[in-house]
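Quick start: what a row looks like.
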Amino acid sequence: MKIQSLGHVVLNVRNIEKAEAFYQGILGLPIAARMAEPEMTFFSLGNHHDFAIAAVGDDADSAPQNTPGLAHVAFKIGDASDDLRAAQTILDEAGIKTTPVDHEVTQSLYMNDPDGNTVEVYVDVSDAWKAEPARVAQARPLSL
């Protein structure tokens, strides 16, 4: 078997409306479709759907820390530090705490969605990884 590409990612969320307010309202992901049972929202970035959220109920337990599972999902937002600074302004205005990180080939902002799922928005700032793939394994604090 040969994987051709990543198809989509689905995150469990407690409340679909709160999650939509974050993913569509703040991050700007376009909604492609909704499903009633199970309650899901699908977002598209050019494919039929690239990302989705599935409601598990307002009383659902949080995923335990330090256990196997999805660490985070990342969304590319541009190719320049100015794009990341603009995103930081939007997130600051929305009251969302971020952690800026310099990965050398990307610069990122990490945050939590309303359910504590970690989300990364990033910009590509170098293609050095093409010649030296190990360059993607860098993480230093970033000042914006």
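That is the whole record. The mean pLDDT is 94. The radius of gyration is 16 Å.
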